[in-house]
């Protein structure tokens, strides 16, 4: 499983509302892994996607956040757009996710010889809450979370590569 997550934590209510109302859309052209030899293994390319991409939002836990994922193969992009709002009974920010669990008959490439995850993407506005995760393993210290996660900053207004070394991913 691969997912991109947006959420807000530990910020004042007024700032959270203003920021959440301007949550940016992100567009993704490709996701790949870099081998130690600088060879690239493509995990997904949106001009010919091999996985089914969907959105998941906090309404699964009573929240009111919304998001959509639209794959535009002719443009070679996937557009992830949404708004995070406070979960009413928690009085805390919710979340939105763009994710894939693969698809019928699809597999992920072996990236065991790779050293980093590379994503070619762009955001329309600055936002400091993006995270990417992969894997389905559930570790005890991960509490409710699955897989390995890392934060990243998205380039604004232009597509560029974001490279996250695998040693920056955590199970927490």
TrEMBL record:
InterPro entries: Galactose-bd-like_sf, NADH-UbQ_OxRdtase-assoc_prot30. Keywords: Signal. The keyword Signal applies. Residues 50-170 form the NADH:ubiquinone oxidoreductase intermediate-associated protein domain. It holds the Pfam family CIA30. Transmembrane segments: none annotated. Residues 1-33 form the signal peptide. This is NADH:ubiquinone oxidoreductase intermediate-associated protein 30 domain-containing protein. It comes from Ditylum brightwellii. The lineage of its organism: Eukaryota, Sar, Stramenopiles, Ochrophyta, Bacillariophyta.
């Amino acid at each position: 499983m691969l997912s991109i997550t947006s959420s807000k934590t530990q910020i004042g209510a007024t700032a959270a509302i203003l920021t959440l109302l301007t949550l940016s859309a992100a567009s993704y052209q490709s996701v790949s892994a870099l081998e130690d030899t600088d060879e690239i293994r493509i995990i997904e390319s949106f001009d010919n996607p091999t996985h089914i991409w969907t959105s998941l939002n906090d309404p699964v836990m009573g929240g009111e956040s919304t998001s959509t994922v639209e794959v535009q193969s002719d443009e070679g992009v996937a557009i992830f757009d949404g708004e995070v709002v406070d979960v009413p009974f928690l009085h805390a920010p919710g979340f939105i996710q763009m994710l894939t669990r693969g698809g019928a008959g699809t597999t992920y490439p072996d990236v065991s010889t790779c050293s980093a995850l590379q994503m070619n993407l762009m955001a329309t506005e600055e936002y400091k809450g993006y995270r990417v995760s992969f894997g389905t393993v559930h570790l005890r210290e991960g509490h409710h979370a699955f897989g390995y996660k890392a934060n990243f900053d998205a380039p604004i207004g232009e597509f560029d590569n974001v490279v996250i070394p695998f040693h920056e991913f955590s199970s927490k």
